[in-house]
Amino acid sequence: MVYESLIAILEKHLKDLTASWVAQVKSSEYLETYKKLSDEELFRRGNILFSNLQDWILKGASNDEVADYFQEIGTERISEGFPLSEVYFALYLEKKVLWSFVVLKDEVAGVLKASDALEYMAEINNYFDLGNFNIIRGYMQALYSHISDSDKFTKDELEKLLAKGALYHESIRKIQEQMYSEGLSIGMVR
After folding, report:
1. The pTM is what?
2. Which residue has the higher pLDDT, 105 or 118?
């Protein structure tokens, strides 16, 4: 019941959801880079995210698939010159738009029991929270790669500039493995 309701909203209101997101992006003081995109491109990007949410629920896509998709988004946005804060806020607006439709549409609001509503909220939050984490992950991995490739910082300077932790070390290992496979070599991080 919960999944069917969410799928119904996404199918029935995909264009409205996307148009609402585009309007919010255009009126936001925090999304200057997004505002430089054409209306058609903004619509395409918003539509893709809502469509992917629908596919994720319909096909039972794994969290790994969601992670890969959003990491790619993070990598693309840094290469396009988007500040990370804007990318994060744009995804927040997608979630906000979806919630406003869920709350306002009778086909969901009047049908769900409290336990179903909690499950509904958990699914939506899971998708967007995984999205935010993995966008940041992809963005930071690409950032590290760009900085590392620039040869403007030593390994020690990079370690001081970038936060340490599993993501940081994972990024370094990934870049080192890539460089190794391309015949380049830098010291491996342990």
Report:
1. 0.78
2. 118
Q: What DSSP assignment string belongs to the chain?
A: -HHHHHHHHHHHHHHHHHHHHHHHHHH-TT-HHHHTS-HHHHHHHHHHHHHHHHHHHHHT--HHHHHHHHHHHHHHHHHTT--HHHHHHHHHHHHHHHHHHHHH-HHHHTT--HHHHHHHHHHHHHHHHHHHHHHHHHHHHHHHHHHHHHT-S-HHHHHHHSPPSHHHHHHHHHHHHHHHHTT---PPP-
Every domain of the chain and the residues it spans: 2-151, 153-190
Report the mean per-residue pLDDT for the chain: 81
Residue closest to 35 by CA, chosen among 83, 72, 99: 83
What average pLDDT does range 147-160 have in this prediction? 78
Cβ-in-10-Å burial (0-12, 13-18, 19+) of 84 comes to middle
pLDDT band at 150 (very low <50, low <70, confident <90, very high): confident
CATH superfamily label, 2-151: Histidine kinase N-terminal domain (1.10.490.70)
